[in-house]
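Supplementary Text 2. Reproducibility record for the structural model of the 279-residue chain.

All settings were left at their defaults, and a single model was retained for analysis rather than an ensemble. We include the record here because the model underlies the residue-level annotations in Supplementary Table 4.
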Amino acid sequence: MKGQGVQTIEPEMEPARRCVRTGDLVLLVGSDRKTAIVRMQPARQYQTHHGVLNHDAVIGIPWGSSVDTHLGYSYMVLPPSLDQLIRDVQRATQIIYPKEIGYMLMKMNIGPGSTVLEAGTGSGALTLALARMVQPDGHVFSYEVRADMKALAEKNLARVGLDRFVTFRLRDIDEGFDEEGLDAAFLDVREPWLYLSQVHQALRGGGFLGSLLPTVNQVGVLLRNLAMHPFGFTEVEELLLRPYKAVAERLRPVDRMVAHTGYMIFSRALLGEPLLEPE
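Retained model, structure tokens:
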């Protein structure tokens, strides 16, 4: 009726999601700020030099609570963020930093339902982020030439319960890819320009191509090769992230900063010539 306001009722969080459940990954934060990510299972224990923490003491308590070991040492119980899950992966190679991963996901339009190709699985940090984003209906196809790295990535994805969204393939990508019509592809390899024809065949028209390279020399080679293939609207970007000490009385940048970690290159797969000339 005219003059009457419409009452909006916000959906209430499911009560069970307010508390830790069996099978949840839990971020344990001690008073020394050291952290651990542990999957909660009944009748199991987390062993630390601060004492034994029974999983049963954690299961069922509200997120954000604290719980004590048998020696009285307290841990804060929090849900881990995607950033923390990525940093926690067991690694045998240098991983892509979360600051680049988040930006790449946005630039390449990767979200629920996307089908994504990854070449160069490595330890699986980017694979984890991709799998998290494409669920529940999308899928990641990850190619790796080293059997040991493939096995490590599979272990890391299984640990966080995201392996069902990923198909791991052990293959030299020079042989091409099994998939076609994909939404996006990311080349995490030393010489991505060698595989542009294979990637273009795997992408749908307008699909996104991304790569990360550490030196301007490599970027230059990739740009020259992209110009010789049906790709367009290419961009090169770099991210510098400066954290601050979050103390109101002495707010200032931290003493150390992770600055250059790589140059990000983005392009689009075309079915014809680009309408715009390069700048």
